[in-house]
Amino acid sequence: MRVDLFDFALPPELIALRPARPRDAARMLVVPGQAGFQDRVVRDLPSALRAGDVLVFNDTRVIPAQLEGTRGEARIGATLHKRIDLRRWQAFIRNGKRLREGDTIAFPADVAAAAEQRHPDGSWTLAFAGEEPVEVLLERAGRMPLPPYIAGKRPTDEADRSDYQTMFAVEDGAVAAPTAALHFTPDLLAALEHAGIGRETLTLHVGAGTFLPVKADDTADHAMHAEWGRIEPDTADRLNAVRANGGRVIAVGTTVLRLLESATGEDRIIRPFAGDTAIFITPGYTFRAIDGLMTNFHLPRSTLFMLVSALMGLDRMQQTYAHAIAEGYRFYSYGDSSLLLP
C-alpha cells in the first residue's frame, strides 16, 4: 500500500511533553467498530470492558540507553536498541560518518565501547569494555531515551526516569516504553479486578526502531527492526482459556499486540514464544490473537498507525484521528489513550 495513505496533519501543540497526573486521569477515546465515538477518561476503563475480558501488559523495563560520547574530537551519540550478547549491543549512531570499525567511543563515567561493525541500515555493533553488566554502565552514563518528538522540544530530566516507566516494568531491556500502559495506577488495577477483568503479562523489549520513519513510498518496501519477546507457556494457556470461555483478549499497547500475533497460528491458538519478531502489520492482515487494543495516538505515516488501521480500517482510523485532533486529545508517548474495539 502507498505510505501516503497513512498521512494526516497534526497540530504540533497536541504533542504531549509531560504525562497526565494522576496517570489514569488521561483522556480515553473509545472507538467501537460501528460509527460513533465515546469521549471518556482512562479510569473509566472498567466500565468500557466486560467481566471475563483480560488485559495483557508488557513488563519490559526501559533502560537509560542513550549515550553521548566522543571519538577523538568528534562528538558521537548512541542509542542502544537491541542486545546481541552480554557485552555487545546494536545501536543507532549520530555522527556515525566519523566512526571507523575498531574505533573506541569514550562515554562519561569511564564507560567505553568499541565500534565493532557497521550494518547496512547505518546502525553499529558496540562492544562495551570491562566486566560490569552493560545495564550497570548505563545507569552511570546513560539517559532515558525519550522519543525524538519530545527530546527535540525539551531536555530529559529526573522526572522522566519515573514518568517514562510503567508500573509493570520488571524486565530490563527496552529502549522505549510500552506507552499504552503508562496510564495505569494501582487504584485502576483494583477497580479492574473488582469488575472481573483479568490481567496477564508478557515481555517484549521495545527497540528504538519503533520511532524510525517509514522512508519507502510503499509499505512492501519497508523493513521492520527485530525485537526480542517472550510469552510463558502458562500465560499462553490462560489466554487461550479466556477466549474459550467467551472473554476478549485486549492488548495494552502495540508491542503486546505484535508479540501475541507473532505467537499465534492460523488456528487462533496462542503458543509459548521466545525469540525475535519483526512482524509488520498493515491493512489486509487477519488478526488471530487479540479482540481489542488500548493504545496511544501515533505518528502519521508510521508503522503503528498502519497497525491500528489494519485493526479498525483505514477510513475508520482517519475519522478517529480527525475526531481526536478536533477534540484536543494529546498525542504520542505522554499523550492520551484510545480503546479500539473492532
Automatic annotation (TrEMBL):
Catalysed reactions, semicolon-separated: 7-aminomethyl-7-carbaguanosine(34) in tRNA + S-adenosyl-L-methionine = epoxyqueuosine(34) in tRNA + adenine + L-methionine + 2 H(+)
The protein, known as: S-adenosylmethionine:tRNA ribosyltransferase-isomerase
Gene3D superfamilies, alphabetized: QueA-like
Pathway the protein acts in: tRNA modification; tRNA-queuosine biosynthesis
Any one Pfam family match given in the protein's UniProt record, by short name: Queuosine_synth
InterPro entries: QueA (IPR003699), QueA_dom1 (IPR042118), QueA_dom2 (IPR042119), QueA_sf (IPR036100)
Biological process terms in GO annotation: tRNA queuosine(34) biosynthetic process
Biological function: Transfers and isomerizes the ribose moiety from AdoMet to the 7-aminomethyl group of 7-deazaguanine (preQ1-tRNA) to give epoxyqueuosine (oQ-tRNA).
Organism from which the protein derives: Croceibacterium mercuriale
Keywords in alphabetical order: Cytoplasm, Queuosine biosynthesis, S-adenosyl-L-methionine, Transferase
Subcellular location: Cytoplasm
Family: Belongs to the QueA family.
Cellular compartments per GO CC: cytoplasm
Subunit structure: Monomer.
Molecular function GO terms recorded: S-adenosylmethionine:tRNA ribosyltransferase-isomerase activity
Amino-acid biosynthesis keyword on record: no
HAMAP family assigned: QueA
